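During the first year of the project, the team set up a workflow for recording each protein of interest as an amino acid sequence followed immediately by a discrete structure-token representation. This format lets reviewers and collaborators read both layers of information side by side without switching files. As required by the reporting guidelines, we include two representative entries from the current panel. The first entry is reproduced here exactly as it appears in our internal archive.
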Amino acid sequence: MSQRNLHPDVQAFKTFINQHPKLIESIRRSGHAWQPYYEKWILLGEDDPYWDAFKSPTNQDDKNEPRKQTEMIEQLKKFSETVDLNKIQGHAQQLSGTIGTIQELISQFQSSKNPQASVDPDASKHPEWFKD
């Protein structure tokens, strides 16, 4: 059934639902049917405080966004003032050295395994004292 064949109330409800994404998430998470919410929408109307819990917070976030960005920039400034780049470089060098040491240990461990694997497997079946 296409959008044009739907009852005008159902089309209006679909528009309402799209304006309340938290309602969609809630219904999908809970597994409830849409029918009770449609009936509440018909009885209570769109402006009822019941629907406030399901409204998208984007309008409020749009108002607070510049303030949040300013706060974040100021926090980054404070952080950059307290950061000692020499300490960070020292830690990075220590980490690099540790990684190098681990790589050497792994390569030594692998090389110690390989010679054992390259020994003739038939040698253990026929000891040398049986040779003529």
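The second entry, processed by the same pipeline in the following quarter, appears below.
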Amino acid sequence: MRTRFILIETSHPGNVGAAARALKVMGFDEMVLVAPRYANVLRKEETIQRASGANDVLDKTRIVDTLDEALEGISHLCATAMTPRDFGPPTRSPREHFDLLLGQSASHAQTQATADTEKHFGPVSSIGFLFGSERFGMKNEDVYKCHVALSIPTNPQFGSLNLAAALQLVAYEWRLALGGFPVASPVADANLADAAQVSGMLLHWEKALIEIGFLDPEAPKKLMPRLNQLFNRANLSPEEIHILRGVAKAMIETAQAKR
């Protein structure tokens, strides 16, 4: 789904750069600025520094004079507002609204949620997220143009968010609703030792435990089976088997040297 982030009358260049970075890490790249304070905001040093490598997003960013220009081609509009209005679109959290919008609400069957979406919003082929100026937020007349006012659940006693931070949260929630990105582990899954390697290590340990007097071969009880279960649960790698056998070897050598 086409996704556009619209910043209205932005006053701080750093927020524009930080917004570009926030979009890129969530896989979005369409940003429009409506009447920003500085006409050359996309070229300002602070903007580029705060973008932190998201220069391609800045290069694609458009600057327009009016909000109507920024809304062209967008079928579903989401305002962002911390303070609920007594008139205008409903106020919902991003996650709640995205579930409804995409027909994923846990409280409805899939078919019913889809029907509700089409009834309330009509077919949604593109979505725009509107963010107001840093000092004043969104104007009422701009909020009235939207289908919903998104309110990020924050501390009721201290709920004001930096513009770029609010944009990051909305972008994250929207990406999550669309399916998200896989979380890649920086460490490759280790190969596990096979049963023969574990068995050989246990025989080595049995000999070492006898040498140090911990295991009585005449009355072993269930010590070795319990150690077997312990090491099976540990899912040992061949390298770890090698370490444990090294420990057993040292135990044997130390015990024999003291005799």
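For the second entry, the following points were noted during internal review. The longest helix spans residues 238-257. The radius of gyration is 30 Å. Both points are flagged for discussion at the upcoming steering committee meeting.
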